[in-house]
Q: What sequence folds into this?
C-alpha cells in the first residue's frame, strides 16, 4: 500500500466485497475524477467521516491490482468521440482483478444527465483480441445506446495498471476510489508511469457527495482525466487532445501532448 495513505486506511473499519456490491453497486452513476499529488492523499482521507469503511478481502488486504486492456477501432472512434465530447460515445475494455484472478469484459456508455452506464460479462480467452461472445455482447450493448458498431473492427490500443483502494460511505451508499502506481502502455511497449500522482474518483447516485465537498474545500476540482483518453493523449501526440490539455500540462509535464485538431 502507498506509504502516504497506509496509516489512514489501516484505521478504517472493513467492508467485504459482497456487502459492498449489494449496497453500492452503482453501475449507473455520477462520476467525478480528480488528479492530485500522492502527498495530498492523507489530508483528503484524514478529513472523511468516521463511519467510512474500506474494502477488505483476504487477510487484511485493502489495496488491489487492476489491469485494463482497452479496445478501439483502428480509426480510434471511441477515443475521438470522447475527445470531442460526443453524446454517443463508448469505452471497451477487458478488466482484470489481479489479486483474485477474475476478468470481465466491460462496456461504458453515456446515460441520461451525464451518468456513466457500465455493463459487463465474465471474460475468458486471449486479452489481445475480443472473443466471439464479447464481440456479440459489445454489438448488442452499443446498439442499445444508439451506436451502430456492425462495421467496426476492435483492436487493443492501450493497457493500464494501477493499485486501487475503495472506500464506502454508508450514509449515501456512495464510493470513493484511490488509484496509485499508474502505468500506461501502448501495444508497441511504449510506457508512461506517474508514481507521484493519484486519481481519486467519487461514484455516487446524486450530485455532490460529502467526499466531493471535502475535495473542493482542499482546493481540488473535478477534471476531465480519463485513464484511457489522457493516457493515449500523453503517449500519442498525433491524436487530438484539447479536452485533456489542462490535465496533461499540470500532471504530465514531461509527456508529449496531442494536437488541438
A:
Amino acid at each position: 500500500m502507498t506509504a502516504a495513505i497506509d496509516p489512514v486506511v489501516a484505521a478504517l473499519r472493513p467492508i467485504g466485497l459482497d456487502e459492498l456490491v449489494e449496497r453500492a453497486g452503482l453501475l449507473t452513476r455520477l462520476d467525478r475524477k480528480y488528479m492530485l499529488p500522492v502527498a495530498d492523499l492523507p489530508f483528503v482521507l484524514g478529513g472523511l467521516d468516521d463511519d467510512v469503511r474500506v474494502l477488505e478481502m483476504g487477510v487484511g488486504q485493502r489495496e488491489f491490482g487492476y489491469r485494463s486492456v482497452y479496445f478501439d477501432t483502428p480509426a480510434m472512434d471511441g477515443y475521438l468521440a470522447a475527445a470531442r465530447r460526443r453524446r454517443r460515445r463508448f469505452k471497451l475494455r477487458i478488466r482484470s482483478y489481479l489479486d483474485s484472478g477474475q476478468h470481465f469484459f466491460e462496456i461504458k456508455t453515456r446515460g441520461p444527465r451525464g451518468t456513466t452506464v457500465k455493463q459487463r460479462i465474465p471474460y475468458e480467452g486471449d486479452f489481445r483480441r475480443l472473443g466471439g461472445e464479447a464481440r456479440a455482447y459489445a454489438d448488442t450493448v452499443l446498439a442499445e445506446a444508439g451506436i451502430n458498431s456492425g462495421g467496426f473492427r476492435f483492436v487493443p490500443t492501450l493497457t493500464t495498471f494501477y493499485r486501487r483502494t475503495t472506500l464506502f460511505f454508508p450514509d449515501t451508499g456512495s464510493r470513493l476510489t484511490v488509484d496509485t502506481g499508474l502505468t500506461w502502455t501502448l501495444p508497441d511497449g511504449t510506457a508512461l508511469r506517474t508514481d507521484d500522482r493519484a486519481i481519486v474518483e467519487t461514484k455516487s447516485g446524486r450530485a455532490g457527495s460529502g467526499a466531493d465537498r471535502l475535495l473542493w474545500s482542499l482546493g481540488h476540482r473535478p477534471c476531465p482525466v480519463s485513464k484511457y483518453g489522457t493516457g493515449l493523449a500523453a503517449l500519442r501526440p498525433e491524436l487530438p487532445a484539447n479536452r485533456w490539455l489542462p490535465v496533461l500540462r499540470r500532471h504530465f509535464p514531461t509527456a508529449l501532448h496531442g494536437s488541438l485538431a
Observations:
- The chain has eight helices and eleven strands.
- The mean pLDDT is 88.
